[in-house]
Amino acid sequence: MYALMKFFVLLFAYAVLGWAQSCCQPPGGPNLARPVEANQSSTYIYALSPEVGGATVEGTADRAIDGNKESNAYLHPCSHTKYEQDPWWRLDMKQSNKIDTIVITNRQDCCSERLKGAEVRVGNSADNNNPICGTINDISKPIITLCCNGMVGRYVSVVIPGREEYLTLCEVEVYTG
Ligand SMILES: *[C@@H]1O[C@H](CO)[C@@H](O)[C@H](O)[C@H]1NC(C)=O
């Protein structure tokens, strides 16, 4: 009897461990965020650093899916909304996918705290009210990894709810298991 109990406790422990490990493994599959389409609530225009030519760029939504993970927004353009209430960014993958991991590169030259409280949502609704995969609370590292545990959806949204803010994303990657 005791041996049987021990067996089930161990089985449970391994199942939990296995689940924890399968989530947020280094991504294996293709990045589903490319090449598709992204949009955002508004677009901010700014000048790059003189050391890279100083061109004026639009921080369009597709800057976050251009395959470049530079986290200095003045060296390489990041997506960048205007300062506004509840800014959002949304990826349209054109088909529903099962999503394991979302990897976000946050801006580092300044302002990384702006992303605090951002909700990352996954689902099939083209508004930004899909279920939440994760909320960004820890902005201490440039790379933020969220586990969606197989959430299914065509859209990935990043929304900053409840305040006026800029929403800047240097890269968003989406992976299946
Ligand atoms: C992108 O979002 C803006 C702001 O809501 C909207 O006006 C525009 O029609 C959208 N563009 C596309 C291609 O969906």
Summarize this structure briefly.
With 177 residues, this protein is mainly β. 12% of the residues lie in helices and 38% in strands.
CATH architecture: Sandwich
Here the CATH topology equals Jelly Rolls
* Uncertain residue segments: 16-22
Shape: globular
Individual helix count? 1
Estimated radius of gyration: 18 Å
DSSP helix fraction: 10-25%
Query: Structural class per helix/strand content?
Result: mainly beta
Bound molecules: 2-acetamido-2-deoxy-beta-D-glucopyranose
The CATH class turns out to be: Mainly Beta
Number of strands: 12
Question: Can you offer a commentary on this structure?
Answer:
With 177 residues, this protein is mostly beta strands. It has a single domain, classed as Galactose-binding domain-like (Jelly Rolls). Helix content is 12%, strand content 38%. The chain is built from 1 helix and 12 strands; from the N terminus they run αββββββββββββ. The chain has one helix spanning 2-22; strands spanning 37-40, 45-47, 56-58, 79-80, 84-85, 88-105, 119-123, 132-135, 143-159, 164-165, 168-169, 171-175. The strands form 4 sheets. Strands 1, 6, 7, 8, 9 and 12 form a 6-stranded antiparallel sheet that branches. Strands 2-3 form a two-stranded antiparallel ribbon. Strands 4-11 form a two-stranded antiparallel ribbon. A hairpin with an 8-residue loop joins strand 7 and strand 8. The longest helix is centred in the first third of the chain and has 21 residues, at 2-22. It is globular. 32% of the residues are buried. The structure holds 2-acetamido-2-deoxy-beta-D-glucopyranose.
